[in-house]
Amino acid sequence: GAVVSQHPSRVICKSGTSVKIECRSLDFQATTMFWYRQFPKQSLMLMATSNEGSKATYEQGVEKDKFLINHASLTLSTLTVTSAHPEDSSFYICSAQGQAGEYTYNEQFFGPGTRLTVL
Amino acid sequence: KNQVEQSPQSLIILEGKNCTLQCNYTVSPFSNLRWYKQDTGRGPVSLTIMTFSENTKSNGRYTATLDADTKQSSLHITASQLSDSASYICVVRTTSGTYKYIFGTGTRLKVLA
To answer: Cβ neighbours of residue B94 under 8 Å, at least 6 residues apart?
Structure first.
């Protein structure tokens, strides 16, 4: 299967600072990437969907100015949490869907997640 | 409204026992259904994928079933191991408009020695 990596795996920051999380597809071209957040003991909640070269589509209730998403290449998407506050502390997971050569993946592959703690 | 509901919310079993997790969905139009295993602090990993015409699919000790008529799926775990302790998430893909994934709330399984 295809591999998706995230960096960093954990980050602790002070309130008011911005944090950038990277999501990379390692062995395939990710035409679409998804960003999720997950609170303890809850399932994943989709934040936004991004297609390479286009603006991200945000889910209802997700502030686009708060969570900046960039998907400038077929292997990299970034999520920047701007002016982070303690309530932004969560587990952020990305997933990617796309193709490797002529093969199109009919599923999304998840990254390992990033634990964000805002003090 | 597209929804995916899972039961039970949590489950505790002894090592070596079998268990079955349930997933009911009201997603339409239906494309496929996938079961994921998510270890604590990790991203989900796919266990099985089932399309409309498939009734059963196995992956080692994991066996998924799908009844498209009743819109129900189950994940059966045989001879559980301690490493099976995780959250199991049912995800249904729909092709309404652009594709979209509907996530279930998950079942937290704990296997005790």
So the answer is: B2, B27, B28, B29, B30, B31, B100, B101, B102
What's the CA gap between B105 and B100, in Å, rounded?
16
Chain A nearest-CA residue for B36? A110
Cβ-nearest to A112 among B32, B42, B87: B42
Q: pLDDT (tens digit, 9 = 90+) per residue, A75-114?
A: 999 999 999 999 999 999 999 998 887 777 778 899 999 9
CB contacts, 8 Å: A109 with chain B: 46
What residues in A contact B46, CB-CB < 8 Å? Answer: 1, 107, 109
- Which DSSP category does B15 fall into? T
**B57 touching A (Cβ < 8 Å):** no
B68: nearest Cα among B51, B83, B81, B84: B51
Q: How far is A73 from chain B (nearest CA, A)?
A: 21
Q: Please report, in angstroms and rounded to a whole number, the separation of the first and last CA atoms in chain A.
A: 37
- The answer to whether residue A2 scores a pLDDT higher than 80 is yes
Q: How far apart are CA B63 and CA B76, in angstroms?
A: 5
∠ at Cα A31 (A25, A33), nearest 5°?
A: 65
Measure CB to CB from residue A43 to each of B45, B49, B106 and give the nearest one.
B106
